[in-house]
Amino acid sequence: MPEAYLWDRPDGGVPIAVAASGPSSSALAGEYADGVIAVEPDAKVLELFDEAGGGGKPRFGQVAICWGPDEADCRKRVLDQWRWSPLGWKVNAELPGPDSFAAATQFVREEDLVRTVPCGPDVDKHVEAFNKYVDAGFTHVAFVQVGGESQPDFLDWAERELLPRLRT
Asked: Which part of the chain is the Luciferase-like domain (predicted)?
């Protein structure tokens, strides 16, 4: 198969981070993983991670945003593509498939989403979302831009406006 490649592993191994959202997963990540990943800026998750042996290891936060020149369009995009986010990790982790997600999110409104996913062109909203993770103790924060069709424009905007603000 011409698309398959076998790469040598690095001598030191491949670092593995484990997603955590509560006591059990935080303890598991702290004991066994090289880092922790979380999708909520929850300092308690990091505290539990540290208590289980995670002190000094990387802490990766993932913050969803929906940048675009029109906030109303962004809100619609989030409702269409990210409507499960206000349910929280405990619910999302237990849903078995697409039908369950559809049923669980049928009553989610745009107003519910903007509490967890900043939308629109206002750089301050996106910086605030980022800072929640920094304030909670995350060492690395990744933005997840909702909407594949908006990625090129988002990356241009991030280079011009968002990243300079985060570096100050």
From this structure: 4-140
pLDDT in tens, the chain (168 residues): 567 776 787 888 889 999 999 999 999 999 999 999 999 999 999 999 999 999 999 999 999 999 999 999 999 999 999 888 777 766 777 778 888 888 888 888 888 888 889 999 999 999 999 999 999 999 999 999 999 888 999 999 999 999 999 998
DSSP-assigned states of every residue in the chain: -TT----PPPTT----EEE--SHHHHHHHHHH-SEEEESS--HHHHHHHIIIIITTS-EEEEEEEB--S-HHHHHHHHHHHSTTGGG-HHHHHH--SHHHHHHHTTT--HHHHTTTS-BSS-HHHHHHHHHHHHHHT-SEEEEEES-GGGHHHHHHHIIIIIHHHHH-
Terminal Cα-to-Cα distance of the chain (whole angstroms): 48
Q: Which amino acid is at 21?
A: S
Residues near 88 by beta carbon (within 8 Å), at least 6 away in sequence: 40
**Residue indicated by tokens 């269409």:** 80
- Amino acid making up residue 101: F
